[in-house]
Amino acid sequence: MRITAIETLVCHARMRNWVFVKVLTDQPGLWGWGEATLEWHTKSVVGAIEDLTPLLVSEDPTRVEHLWQMMYRQHFWHGNGIVRATAISGIDLALWDIVGKVHGVPCHRLWGGPVRDHVRLYCHLGGGKMEDFYGTDPQDAAHFGELAQQAVADGFTAFKSMAVPPTMPIEGLRPIRYAEACVQAMRDAVGEGIDIMVDCHARPSPRMGVRFATALEPYGLYFFEEPCWPESIEGIAEVQRSVSTPIATGERLTSQQAFTPLLEKRACSVLQPDITHCGGLSEARRIAAMAEAYRVALAPHNPQGPVSTAASLQLGFATPSYIICESVHADVPWRCDVVDEGFKVEPESRTVKPDDRPGLGIEVNEDEVKKHPFEPELLQRVFYPDGSVGDW
Questions:
Q1: CATH number of 3-104
Q2: Domain residues of the chain, as ranges?
Q3: Under DSSP, is residue 95 helix (H, G, I), strand (E, B) or coil?
Q4: Hey, what CATH class is 109-358 in?
Q5: DSSP per residue over 114-149, as a string?
Q6: Residues near 291 by Cβ (< 8 Å), separated by ≥ 6?
Q7: 41, 201, 277, 372: which is the annotated catalytic residue?
Q8: Which residue of the set 41, 108, 301, 372 is catalytic?
Q9: 301 is catalytic
Q10: What's the pTM value of the predicted model, to 2 decimals?
Q11: Which residues, given as ranges, of the chain have pLDDT below 70?
């Protein structure tokens, strides 16, 4: 069995263009699906996949680790930049899909079988945009409570929001009081039986991250995400040491090596590799093994398309340190039309049980994808009141 071609299918989905990867083989009807979605870099990722293709055509698709090493180490430049790592990730997912189909089992069976009866899903409420903070009063945060109530009505027992606004390196109490008001509105709306997470989107400086984390500690957050730039390992560690709230980070790290100092410095309680950016399932499993050694939880970043979600669930079924799966359910109304999913979401609890469909357990409807061709993503620009550039 040999790889004959690698194709990309781009599907515009409002906030981002999903980049589906199809690895074809010389066996009739046998191919694998992956995803390499990277907003604002769609054309670059498609080009990177085209660059990698000559390395893989005519190779055996079941030699997944061997092909991963080729993609990462050859062409001289190692594959730890975001565009190259995303391209590798998309192909890697498709290769695992093929291996599962060859053996007639879901991917989690290839990795030792399920370690849990179900995976819990959580949703993202959004919020915390520039216009939500500058020019408004903290008392106007009630809409966060309304969004929280809707998430619970949809069956979720956990959700995340961006209650921390874009923040200059040092600010006074106003942004802190705003974040407090938002989180209090959510906690009051859903009570203590629902898990709340706050995503800072790496907006604060390390010092402001400490201040936000300290202010929000009384609300019992499930975790506090990206409290400062991911490049600032010491800064993240400082935030973690300042509070008992679990600190989560890792969505912007693109290799096993990048996660190592986080663990060595005890900088976080939750690792969040993005399976479509960190090197695919092959690298995610190595990162998960490291997390297990340090007794750190795994909660992959997953705001992309449906193939990414299927891959994240397969990892979750077979990974002891995995605690929860980020899910998207309301980005575009036709999301389910693009894919045929083997797994089923329990609507009352928003959990997913393992199923027996081979590979990733998903099939992409190429005709539906063609109805949503590439469109440039909306530019996201953030400036502070003084005109300086902020973090989105």
A1: 3.30.390.10
A2: 3-104, 109-358
A3: helix
A4: alpha beta
A5: -SSS-EEEEEE-----HHHHTTS-GGGGHHHHHHHH
A6: 259, 263, 271, 297, 298, 321
A7: 201
A8: 301
A9: yes
A10: 0.95
A11: 128-140
